[in-house]
Write a structure and sequence with these properties.
It is built from 11 helices and 18 strands. The chain is of the alpha/beta class. The protein has 2 domains: 209 residues, Alanine racemase (TIM Barrel, Alpha-Beta Barrel); 125 residues, Lyase, Ornithine Decarboxylase, Chain A, domain 1 (Beta Barrel), CATH 2.40.37. Strands 1, 10, 13, 14, 15, 16, 17 and 18 form an 8-stranded mixed beta sheet that branches. The longest helix is centred in the middle third of the chain and has 17 residues. This is Alanine racemase. Belongs to the alanine racemase family. One of its GO terms (biological process) is D-alanine biosynthetic process. It is an enzyme of class 5 (isomerase).
Length: 361
């Protein structure tokens, strides 16, 4: 096996999808596979989750790539698009760019597409204040879009929770109320729930849910792991020990000498670094697992390697597997806490140098 390797489990992906279906049993599922399916491989995940009712990506280029891989599902482009040529391409490929700006409405009212867009979604600014049309302006926008002749009479309303990972936050209820009011006024289907809302706010499931992180077996809540929600981690990140080295008291390790041996020590060097997406913020604070035993990461993370304290793991040797995250011994949520970040970032920034090994598929 080539190292470092992100092993992607199709079985885990499908298990997590079933958990979504069990949890939001009356809702259709728009599976979010943007950012190369959160680092898991967009084409792989699309095939694994082929029972999704639709897929969502962030950008036009991601949607085009899915079509090139033979994906025929409805594909929603969450960031939308802003040029006539891009709308023409979206119509040609049966893509669904989200409308979230009045200028997009203006543009579609001024051009004629070769074929109409279908499976259309309006992004409503229900309180996040990032992308979206204000609730009071939604009905006017829909009327203008219908009048343009460029969009079939198939519309849904979409919004995004700003604080759904903060269970009990009153702002979540305010956003939900905005969308329920619009649903009552327009009679249109609503898609609001992200992973945290799927798990914590059943009243928000409505017509569609839009899970992302939980599909990959990762918890959206601080201090929790995916296994706490009966999810299975879909990615295991591993590499290999490529060297071991004995240190004397007072000898320093790595760039800047940020770690100094206070006793006779043994270190290992593993083949992974920030060039692979293993965060430099894990310097001197993370852990790895070798032969079932946790070992500290010491010194600064380099571009291609990390150093590991093997003093209490004397049996470790060159060629041993090094688990970076993804099994019960060391979950990605815990590693994210070491790096003072969120697990989304760790999995999405893995570079193309990291081999993806798909299993169970």
């Amino acid at each position: 096996m080539t190292f470092p390797t992100a092993t992607i489990s199709v079985t885990a992906l499908q298990y997590n999808f079933k958990r979504v279906k069990q949890t939001a049993s009356n809702s259709k599922v728009m599976s979010v596979i943007k950012a190369d399916a959160y680092g898991h491989g967009m084409a792989t995940v699309a095939e694994a989750l082929k029972h999704s009712d639709a897929f969502a990506v962030a950008r036009l280029s991601e949607a085009v790539s899915l079509r090139q891989h033979g994906v025929t599902h409805p594909i929603v482009i969450l960031e939308g698009i802003n040029s006539a040529d891009d709308f023409q391409l979206a119509a040609e490929l049966r893509l669904s760019p989200v409308i979230h700006l009045s200028s997009q409405v203006d543009l579609l009212s001024s051009i004629t597409l070769d074929q109409s867009l279908s499976f259309n979604w309006i992004m409503v600014d229900s309180g996040m204040h990032r992308l979206g049309i204000r609730p009071d302006d939604v009905e006017t926008a829909i009327s203008r879009l219908k009048a343009s002749g460029n969009m079939l009479d198939e519309f849904g309303l979409m919004s995004h929770f700003a604080n759904s990972d903060l269970v009990g936050d009153s702002r979540n209820q305010h956003q939900l109320e905005h969308m329920l009011n619009l649903k009552h006024k327009t009679g249109l289907p609503v898609c609001l729930s992200n992973s945290a809302a799927v798990l914590a706010y059943p009243e928000s499931h409505l017509d569609w849910v839009r899970p992302g992180l939980m599909l990959y077996g990762i918890s959206p809540f601080g201090g929790k792991a995916g296994t706490d929600h009966d999810l299975q981690p879909a990615m295991q990140l591993t590499t290999q020990l490529i060297s071991t080295y004995d240190l004397n008291i007072g000898e320093q390790v790595g760039y800047g000498g940020d770690w100094t041996a206070t006793q006779q020590s043994r270190i290992g060097v593993a083949s992974i670094g920030y060039g692979d997406g293993y965060s430099r913020h894990l310097s001197n604070c993370s852990e790895v697992v070798i032969q079932g035993q946790r070992c500290p990461v010491i010194g600064r993370i380099s571009m291609d390697t990390i150093c590991i304290n093997l003093t209490d793991c004397s049996q470790a040797m060159v060629g041993d597997e090094v688990l970076l995250w993804g099994r019960s011994e060391l979950m990605v949520e815990e590693v994210a806490e070491y790096a003072s970040t969120i697990p989304y970032e760790l999995v999405t920034v893995l570079s193309k140098r990291v081999n993806r090994d798909v299993i169970d598929g």
